[in-house]
Amino acid sequence: MSDSSEKKVVLITGGSRGIGEAIVQRFAEAGYSVAFTYASNQAAADAVVSRIAAAGGSALGLVADVRDFPRACDVVKEVQDALGPITVLVNNAGIKKDMPLMKMDPASWQDVLDTNLTGTFNYTRALIGSLVRTGGSVINVASTSGVTGMAGQSNYSASKAGVIGFTRALAKEVVRFGVRVNAIAPGFIETDMTASIDEAVRKKLYAQIPMGRAGSARDVAQLALYLAGDDTTYVTGQVWNMDGGLT
Ligand code: NAP
Predict the structure, then answer these.
(1) Of all protein residues, whose CA lies closest to atom 34 belonging to ligand 1?
(2) 107 assigned to some structural domain
(3) 41-97 pLDDT, tens per residue?
(4) In this structure, which residue's CA is closest to atom 8 in ligand 1?
(5) Half-sphere exposure (Cβ direction) of 127: Cα atoms closer than 13 Å
(6) What is the atom index within ligand 1 of the atom nearest the CA of 17?
(7) What is the CATH number of the domain that holds 219?
(8) Are 91 and 14 in contact (CB under 8 A)?
(9) Cross-strand pairs, 35
(10) Is 4 part of a structural domain of the chain?
(11) Which of 80, 71, 173 is nearest to 122 (CA)?
């Protein structure tokens, strides 16, 4: 690993589990100083920090609800004070509350929009003033659901389509400052979010995927690292589908 004074700093939201955890691990392996947030699962967050420490790296885990903008500003400040300028932001934290629109209560709509879309705004807004000075990369975790729309996920699809629009608009706005903004749209990835899906439904879903299987959180992490790095410096405003051929 490189000397800490040369390390790039990445902030990842929702890094305690699933895709976010894999992104934390992958960036730590690549020599980044890693900070991540989580909603409430301290045991999971502590386990991530311990695993990275055992592998010779370090990670800073901070409890912070992405819906809370003042907290986002505090997190950015805390991380920059501790580790130096953040040049990569991965907006990953997300939830789903699936149900047909006819059964959807306003709270289930609002919660998903606030977490997935406003959470992405909150962290990007909190960091953007610093990013336009240093240059860097924002990577937003969207979803196939935001690209094609999925029945039973009108709230989730709307939030992720919003993330895609946000990505494309912001990319144009900040390109002159050397800031790149891209989105990853994963299809079906094995994590806690998808663990509760009924076996019969899962079989049907796999049958629609040309590769016939789910992807892994590690697959998404590899793409995030690639988009943050020097191999993609001419790439911005793009949505990277990672879905086994589904879309
Ligand atoms: P997950 O396993 O359920 O993990 C969610 C992570 O987000 C956890 O670290 C959780 O923290 C955090 N989080 C949730 N609400 C939060 C809040 N309000 N504030 C801060 N952190 C919060 O989910 P995942 O499957 O890894 O999904 C990660 C991202 O990928 C999401 O944006 C999701 O929409 C997207 N995605 C997932 C799939 C898939 O098939 N899994 C497909 C496409 C897109 P705690 O541990 O504290 O709860």
Answers:
(1) 94
(2) yes
(3) 999 999 999 999 999 999 999 999 999 999 999 999 999 999 999 999 999 999 999
(4) 14
(5) 36
(6) 9
(7) 3.40.50.720
(8) no
(9) 11, 60
(10) no
(11) 71
